[in-house]
Amino acid sequence: MAVLDIVKYPDQRLREATFDVGEITDDIRQLVRDLIDTMYSLNAAGIAAIQVGRLERVFVLDGKVPAGGDDNSPPLVFINPELVETGKGLAVAEEGCLSFPGVYVDVKRPRWAKVRARDLDGKTVEVDGDGLLGRALQHEHDHLTGKLMIDLVGTIKKEVIKRKMKRWHADHDGEKPAAGTPSLPELV
Q: Which residues form the active site (predicted)?
């Protein structure tokens, strides 16, 4: 079991461009295993490779996220995901993110989403859903495009998030932003 370190906001690695996976190699299979281990160790609904500092277009979701999923449902793996369609109106719901520990904000998103990707066997799969699944698909896909939940809220909430993250970094001396990462006041 490999639990990887999470890249925390405002680390600029969260904004880097990701790239498509060509062949599904042993390295990609190991990345997926590590993402799954990390996701479960942190009791998260999903995680994208960029959140552990990897630039491959990969994310995973807990198998309990889709309606009807339970503790025995395998995690869902998305390689080179494309957000194909969204719709069915908008919904506001609270979101959290491993890259923003302790931060939960209301985010408005389409109620439903469909993602097309490859699975670990290289087969094309389409997954669609509303509720938590639709939200999770959009949230993790956003990570692969450099979009973060702070980008989806108004100015006042952005400032609140920035202050919370500044406090979080101050309280976690061993997990300061990486060298070369702008401090929060520089991002304001």
A: 140
143 carries a ligand binding annotation? yes
Is 139 labelled a binding residue? yes
What is the pTM assigned to this prediction?
A: 0.90
Per-residue model confidence (pLDDT) at position 138: 98
Dihedral in degrees, nearest 10, Cα atoms 140, 5, 31, 118: 0
Q: Is 175 a catalytic site residue? A: no
Is pLDDT of 173 > 90?
A: no
Q: How far is CA 123 from CA 32, 47, 118, in A?
A: 15, 21, 5
pLDDT tens per residue across span 131-146: 999 999 999 999 999 9
- Identify which of 169, 125, 150, 142 has the alpha carbon closest to the alpha carbon of residue 59: 142
Q: Which of 16, 140, 159, 186 is catalytic?
A: 140
